[in-house]
Each structure stands twice: as C-alpha cells, then as structure tokens.
Design brief:
- The chain is α+β, with helices and mostly antiparallel strands and about 140 residues long.
- Helices cover about 15% and strands about 40% of the residues.
- The chain contains two helices and eight strands; from the N terminus they run ααββββββββ.
- Strands 3, 4, 6, 7 and 8 form a five-stranded antiparallel sheet that branches. A three-stranded antiparallel sheet has the order 1-2-5, with no helix packed on it.
- The radius of gyration is 28 Å and the shape is elongated.
C-alpha cells in the first residue's frame, strides 16, 4: 500500500502578508498607523522691516507673515550677527506677528534680521534674511 499524499497549502499570499506586517512593525508602526498618517507640512514665513533705511535711535518694526495648516504657535525674531550667529530678540504668539526694536545710537552699516515660525506640532521654518541699511 502506498502512502496517502497530504495536501500542501500554498504559503505565497499568507507569507507575503506576514512579511509586510513584520516590515511595518519593524519601522515602528502598524497597519493602522500606515493608513492614518498624514503629512504635517512645516509653516511658511516671510519677513519685512520698516522703515528702511533706518537712523540710529529710530524704532525699527519687524513684521512676519506666517501660516500653517495646523496653526502657528509663535514667531521668534532674531538679529543675525556678523559671524552668522543668531541673537533672539523675542517672540510673538498672535498675528499680526510683530517685533519693535530701537536701533542702537552707534549703529552703522547694515543690520540683518531673520524670523522663525513654529507651528503647533513643533515644526519650524526660518525666513529669508532681511537687511536694513542704517543711515547717518
């Protein structure tokens, strides 16, 4: 009498499904996370200064236009130093995003400023640097 052959199951589809689940789990997520993730884009920001040129002792107003699909938490304003370092001047948490600063009495040349918008999820974007000439 010959042995009865046992039916073999095809592992292809199940193996692919399990391998896919393991790959997702190895990435720190699951199937439900993979389908529900939405990309939160960083905010956008533009900076302007007025008046320009500015005289020593005069008030300079920095104004930023910032937007984000999740909302803006704050806009921070910085002076860009000669070596490129940023000195934080302060921040504004409500639109319109403004910062007012008196130009130092001995200021000469070009002053440089930058702003950083941070959204409610903690993502941030820096504005382009704005240059302001100091008139004598």
């Amino acid at each position: 009498m010959s042995p009865t052959p046992t039916p073999r199951r095809r592992a292809g589809p199940w193996l692919a499904l399990h391998a896919g689940m393991l790959l997702l789990a190895g990435c720190g997520g699951g199937i439900d996370e993979w389908f529900s993730q939405s990309e939160n884009e960083p905010p956008t920001i533009a900076l302007a200064a007025a008046p320009t040129p500015v005289a020593p002792g005069q008030m300079l107003v920095l104004v930023a236009a910032a937007s984000d699909d999740e909302g803006i938490d704050e806009v921070a304003f910085f002076r860009v130093e000669a070596d490129g370092a940023l000195t934080r001047l302060g921040a504004d948490g409500e639109a319109p995003f403004l910062w007012t600063q008196e130009v130092a009495s001995g200021a000469t040349g070009t002053l440089r400023y930058q702003a950083r918008a941070t959204d409610t999820d903690g993502k941030s974007t820096d504005s382009l640097i704005v240059e302001v000439e100091v008139s004598e």
